[in-house]
Amino acid sequence: MRFAVVIEKRALEDIQKAIDYYDDQKMGLGEKFALVLDKHIVSIAKNPFYKLRYKDYRVLPIKKFTF
User: Fold this and answer.
1) Which of 13, 22, 60, 27 is nearest to 41 (CA)?
2) I want to staple 30 with a disulfide (CB 3.0 to 4.6 A). Which of 23, 40, 62, 63 is the partner?
C-alpha cells in the first residue's frame, strides 16, 4: 500500500535552494541530490512510519546530502 506524500510549497522552495546550492558546489550535483530525494520520497510513500518530528511530520534524513 502506498501513502500520499504531501510536499508543501515552502518545502519545494527549500528543495530548490538545496539543488541550487549543490549545483554551485559542483555542476550536476544538484541533479544527483534530486534523484536521491525522489528515492527517499518513494520510500516514505511505501512506509511512512519513520521518526516523528515537528508535531505531525515524519523525517527520513538524507545522509549524503546534509544541506
Assistant:
1) 60
2) 23
Confidence of residue 12 (pLDDT cuts 50, 70, 90): very high
Evaluate the CA torsion angle 46, 47, 52, 56 in order and state its sign: positive
| DSSP characters over 21-54 | HHHHHSTTHHHHHHHHHHHHHHHHHH---SEEET
CA 36 vs. chain centroid, Å, equals: 8
Condensed to tens digits (0 to 9), the pLDDT of residues 39-66 reads 999 998 888 777 777 777 777 888 888 7
Cβ(45)–Cβ(3) below 8 Å = yes
Question: Which pTM was predicted?
Answer: 0.81
